[in-house]
Amino acid sequence: MSDIAFMRHALSLAAQGLGRTWPNPTVGCVIVKNGQVLAAARTADGGRPHAETQALSGIDAKGATAYVTLEPCAHVSLTPACAFELAKAGISRVVIACPDPDSRTAGKGVDILKSAGIEVVENVCLEEAQALNAGFFRRVETGLPLLAIKTATSLDGFIADAEGRSQWITGEAARHHGHMLRAQHDAIITGIGTVLADDPALTCRVKGLEKYSPVRVVFDNGLRLSLESQLVKTAQHIPVWVVTSSEDKAKIAKLEKLGVVVKHLPAHDGHVDAEATLRWLASEGITRALAEGGAALNTHLLPYAQRIYWFRAPILLGGGKSAFEGTQPSHAPSDLPRFAKEATLALGKDTLEIYGI
To answer: Which of 2, 111, 8, 141 is nearest to 69 (CA)?
Structure first.
């Protein structure tokens, strides 16, 4: 097998950690000797132990090649630096997919390996590795998480009919895929309007992945979240974070007593500031956030979105509630940022279109 094949094996392992390793990136490591895989691992849930540490455990790696999807860390924290661990294990060659932008490592991991006499090959499957950890890179480089907007509409772009009915526009396969997306993100964002209308749980309900439900984040400027909502009732088991500009100390105390985290942030035009919220989420370690809400929330967050997951059902409603509203009216269409279609996936009778920017 080639370097590319072994690296793609490592990348496939790393992909299994999406939504599970924040605030750390998800990394895959494959140890190979004489063409045979000795060990393979990914970053553990919660971010530690790191992939390299786990892969090296219990094997004789002297003279082997390590394939790592991200530059091995160079700093000592709760665990030893992976670059030193690879050198100590007697690894003779390290193949790296992409550099680590974290200032504690950036280039230092490679320097440690080279100083130990290890051959280092860089940028193997670079673009694939960058795409995999785009959320981590964005948080480190900009102080913002990668934000994706998920919406499900009819062919003519409506998320509900004129009477507000939306169950179910898309079919079971599309809804199942939507739950898979939840498991691959660190946080799911919704608006208080959606919560009041639907009382959603916002959990991952794919069999076997229930424990990977993300942090639930609610934009609730007026602090209208009911103490009897599904979100509040489950807050002590699956985190619920509310962002608000409300000064209602009594309501805040009641929510916090039930396990809800309440963050006071500034508001503009009746909405909690989107950028301030995203920066706060990033400061808490969130690298990937998925927005599931109505037109108001989608529009509010759209200027910060890097990806859109658009589920389309083969029906025409002819009117109703749109997925977006009042989008950037001060800009001419020719001046607006353009999303590029990255993929199309058939899900039963429905279609998922993925757009990136």
So the answer is: 8
Alpha helix segments (H runs only) across the chain: 3-15, 51-56, 82-88, 108-115, 126-132, 134-142, 172-183, 192-198, 230-233, 249-257, 274-283, 295-301
- Which one is catalytic: 52, 71, 85, 284? 52
User: How much of the chain exceeds pLDDT 90, in percent?
Assistant: 81
Instruction: Tokens for 37, please give them.
Output: 């895989």
Please list, in sequence order, all residues whose beta carbon lies within 8 angstroms of the beta carbon of residue 354, skipping any fewer than 6 positions away: 307, 308, 309, 310, 341, 342, 343, 344, 345
The string of pLDDT tens digits covering residues 41-90 is 999 999 989 999 999 999 999 999 999 999 999 987 767 899 999 999 99
52 catalytic? Reply is: yes
Q: With DSSP H G I counted as helix, E B as strand and the rest as coil, what are the percentages for the chain, rounded to 5?
A: 30, 25, 45
> What does the alpha-carbon distance between residue 104 and residue 79 come to, in Å, rounded to a whole number?
14
First to last CA, the chain: 34
**pLDDT reading at 323 higher than 70:** yes
- Bridge partners of residue 39, in order along the sequence: 31
